[in-house]
Design a protein that fits this description.
Length: 352
């Protein structure tokens, strides 16, 4: 039997569908603040998802070099965080917050398509391309698990689902979005710092910046309630862990270090379903797991409660601690780069 919360959730989705802007044919993707040809021209911007009143914010992240990983002297350090490697990162924009349910539901529940049909509205050229992007099957239960919807981070999606959302949003807006690489994520989290956290080494201050096991009351919280890091990014420590595009490899940093010198934009292309990298710690993570260099990864146990056979390629019913954040590189990847680095969705290997 479906729970009451799930039934109420469906009602809220119907209400959300009718809250979309009446001018669905307006090209909301045209946003001068979002346009830049050089790093100097990049600025923070707010983007309305075309045909809706739902928006998200992106912060401009400057390019630069940093030491990926943690020093051997860092408290609570794990072996897979080293050796430290000097890495060069190209400029990009990153989501000011984790992707919320309001944003995610437009894609996952076809709310944009349903509204156009109900009101007999013609979609834009961008709509037509976005409509062709794969959408997930409907979940068998309420994926918020009663922890909250409006203003809260979307959770329980597979990396494939997060990647496909990025593909849909790219088509919807005309700007190229994807998941961050592990190196990009840590670079943005550190925001120019070299300490265990973006605010320093004193973990007693973590509660000012992060929802973690010590203060979360065993649930996630609305995005943006804590202090941001120096680059204006919220919840990089805690709240929900965030998918990166990489496959997890405990020895990846050793491989990079063996190359010598500065490594340019490293990424470990995913070739198998498990393990994939998630970063940042969550509401269910101890303070040490919220450090900038801390690494964790996906496992089949994140789908244990899924009753479907075969298990869903879209949902991770036991990953209540996992969400994602958008990245938009200043220089979009070419089709060849997307294929080589596995930046795009790859449904053929998204099975247990």
């Amino acid at each position: 039997m479906k729970s009451l919360s799930f039934c109420l959730r469906r009602v809220s989705l119907i209400a959300a569908m009718f809250s979309l802007l009446p001018l669905a044919q307006a090209d909301d993707s045209k946003n001068p603040a979002a346009e830049a040809k050089t790093e100097k021209e990049m600025k923070a911007y707010k983007q309305v998802i075309p045909g809706t009143e739902i928006s998200y914010e992106m912060q401009a992240i400057p390019g630069g070099e940093f030491l990926l990983g943690s020093p051997a002297s860092e408290a609570d350090r794990k072996e897979d965080e080293g050796p430290q490697v000097k890495v060069k990162i190209e400029p990009f924009w990153m989501g000011k917050h984790e992707v919320t349910w309001e944003e995610y539901d437009i894609w996952s529940y076809n709310l944009d398509i349903q509204r156009r049909k109900l009101l007999n509205l013609k979609g834009t050229e961008l709509d037509k391309v976005a409509d062709a992007v794969t959408r997930p099957t409907k979940p068998y239960t309420d994926m918020t698990f009663g922890m909250g919807h409006d203003g809260f981070p979307a959770i329980c999606m597979t990396q494939l689902a997060a990647k496909t959302y990025c593909e849909w949003l790219s088509q919807k807006t005309g700007h190229y979005y994807r998941l961050p690489t592990e190196a990009e994520w840590e670079y943005a989290c550190r925001a120019g710092t070299t300490t265990a956290y973006s605010f320093g080494d004193d973990k007693s201050k973590l509660g000012e910046y992060a929802w973690n096991y010590d203060n979360s009351d065993e649930k996630y919280h609305k995005v943006g309630q804590k202090k941001p890091n120096p680059w204006g990014l919220y919840d990089m420590h805690g709240n929900v862990c965030e998918w990166c595009v990489d496959e997890y490899d405990a020895g990846f940093y050793k491989t990079l270090a063996a190359k010598g010198g500065v490594v340019n934009s490293p990424v470990f292309p995913a070739k198998k379903l498990y393990p994939r990298v998630v970063r940042g710690g969550s509401w269910d993570t101890d303070p040490d797991g919220c450090r900038s260099a801390s690494r964790i990864f996906s496992t089949p146990e994140w789908k244990v409660q899924d009753p479907q056979v075969p298990k869903s390629k879209w949902y991770m019913t036991d990953a209540l601690h996992v969400g994602f954040r958008l990245v938009r590189p200043l220089t979009p990847a070419t089709p060849e780069q997307k294929l080589k680095l596995n930046l795009a969705p790859e449904e053929n290997i998204e099975r247990d």
